[in-house]
Specification:
about 500 residues, six-stranded antiparallel sheet, 16 helices, about 15% strand
């Protein structure tokens, strides 16, 4: 075994070993508490009840009749009914993220929504608190820049306004000032555990994460070095095994060295799979890119024009109780609307304003223009690719398997016809290589307490391997530094003595 490999392993263990130990310790938190985020269901629940606008209000919206839409919906904002539209992607724009520019219209005036006033912001915050069950009045309203909890949402929603409530949970929400949408919510509990869990686990401090490209490279290369450190550790561990007198193999070390050696050999492969699968979560170099979803979503929905949406909207006479949002749900090129209540339950209307529950035949017809459907099954239980991690997946769900060479699976909401998930070959590989290895998200291991009984001891053992290796590397590095320092001093003293010996005799007498 080359000595250089041992030295490199030892020195990498000082820094990267500490990072890996931090990943393990924060992993305990991540098993139970995620990074704070406002889910679509929570955002919907926080909306005030919706009132249908007068037909004349829709005529005020200055949009071309033939404008193609990706989506459209009605919501209530500060006591006013708002129309939010997202035009269909414009292929002539080079940057994919700005191919469709959303717009929000005030149906009272027909004009684009202006940046909200402080009064409107307080109204939005109060309405949200009343619907979301936040037990406290608005305490503080302040415009904010990017911070630890908005690094994912800031750029697409800026400028943001932070609202602090005087409630026991110390809740804060962030409102996009231009659209009036609540885009993030945190509590004291989530912020505290976020600093101990997601932030160190994802290397997520604001200073680094706000530069997405730099953050991605830091995580990728740190994970790569962690893989190298683990592989060399396994190599060193195997090479240092010694045969005992009875013929068995064992460790020549004692104390923490013995623990690191033995447990590193036993749990080193698990350590490697966790580090490598964490690397794969970044999808480095794009080799697991999945194209599933975008094409299938557009094909399943079909085109939608503004005038068709407007006409269908005007024909709805009454909304179900507690409707919070009325949104487009085109299927197979036909217009349908969904009236969604605070619990997420939806009633589907056709273009004539009549209730129209989704039927299997209609879904099969919408799928027909694409690749042949080999099976269309209504699932009442999760399967290997449609499941919830910490929140149960919505069930029942239609599963359509396509004969497209990738055996793409489409999971479709049976109430709305909306595409919930699409899984092609790369997505299946990513599911097993990332979720399966990193989270141990395997069939039979999702239910507690079995999951805790398996995962917690394994994570504790990997933590022990990383922590002892980092501590040993640090101690050895200090010895190496002291040895180098002594060697440098001896050489310096030798050079001084040589210079004195080489001086002319006259200068020595003087």
């Amino acid at each position: 075994m080359p000595k250089a490999v041992l030295v490199l392993h030892r020195w990498l263990g000082v820094v990267i070993g500490m990072v890996m130990t931090l990943w393990c310790l924060s992993g305990f938190v991540m098993l139970y508490v995620d990074y704070p985020r406002l889910t679509p269901a929570e955002q919907l629940r926080g909306l005030p009840p919706l009132r249908l606008p007068a037909a004349a209000a829709l005529a005020r919206i200055d949009l071309p009749d033939d404008l193609m839409l990706a989506s459209a919906r009605l919501e209530t904002l500060a006591g006013r009914t708002m129309l939010r539209v997202v035009p269909a992607a414009a292929p002539e724009r080079r940057i994919a993220q700005i191919r469709s520019m959303p717009g929000s219209y005030d149906l009272a005036t027909g004009a684009l929504l202006a940046a909200l006033s402080p009064t409107d912001l307080r109204r939005v915050a109060s309405d949200y608190a009343a619907q979301a069950g936040i037990a406290g009045a608005v305490k503080r309203v302040a415009e904010t820049g990017i911070d630890q909890w908005t690094v994912q949402t800031y750029r697409q929603n800026r400028p943001l306004v932070r609202i602090d409530y005087a409630d026991p949970a110390a809740t804060s929400v962030y409102i996009a000032r231009r659209s009036g949408e609540v885009v993030q919510q945190t509590t004291r509990f989530e912020r505290f555990w976020g600093w101990l869990g997601a932030v160190p686990h994802w290397l997520y401090p604001t200073l680094l994460r706000q530069n997405g490209a730099l953050w991605s490279q830091v995580v990728i290369w740190t994970s790569l070095i962690g893989c190298f450190l683990t592989v060399t550790g396994l190599w060193v561990g195997i090479a240092r095994l010694r045969r005992r007198k009875d013929g068995s193999f064992g460790s020549p070390y004692m104390g923490l060295w013995w623990w690191h050696h033995v447990f590193g050999l036993v749990f080193g492969v698990l350590t490697l799979t966790w580090v490598a699968s964490g690397l794969l979560s970044m999808n480095p170099w794009g080799f697991l890119d999945s194209q599933a979803g975008a094409v299938e979503l557009a094909r399943l929905a079909g085109p939608m024009r503004w005038d068709a949406f407007r006409t269908a909207l005007a024909r709805i006479e009454h909304l179900p109780a507690d409707t919070r949002r009325l949104e487009s749900a085109p299927l197979g090129g036909r217009i349908f609307l969904l009236a969604v209540n605070g619990a997420g339950a939806a009633v589907r209307f056709d273009a004539q304003g009549k209730p129209a529950p989704l039927q299997r035949d209609a879904l099969a017809a919408a799928l027909r223009p694409g690749p042949r459907v080999t099976s269309l099954t209504l699932l009442t239980d999760e399967d290997a690719y449609y499941y919830g991690h910490k929140v149960p997946a919505s069930l029942p769900v239609w599963r359509a398997v396509l004969a497209d060479g990738q055996a793409t699976r489409l999971y479709i909401d049976p109430a709305t016809g909306g595409l919930l998930r699409a899984v092609d070959g790369n997505a299946r590989a990513f599911r097993w290589l990332q979720d399966g290895l990193h989270r141990l998200d395997l069939p039979g291991l999702r239910s507690r307490p079995l999951r805790d009984l398996v995962v917690l001891p394994l994570l504790a053992m990997v933590t022990l391997v990383c922590a002892t290796g980092s501590w040993m590397g640090l101690r050895k590095a200090r010895r190496d530094m002291r040895r180098l320092s002594r060697r440098w001093r001896r050489r310096s003293e030798g050079r001084r003595s040589a210079r004195q010996e080489n001086r002319p005799r006259s200068s020595r007498i003087a």
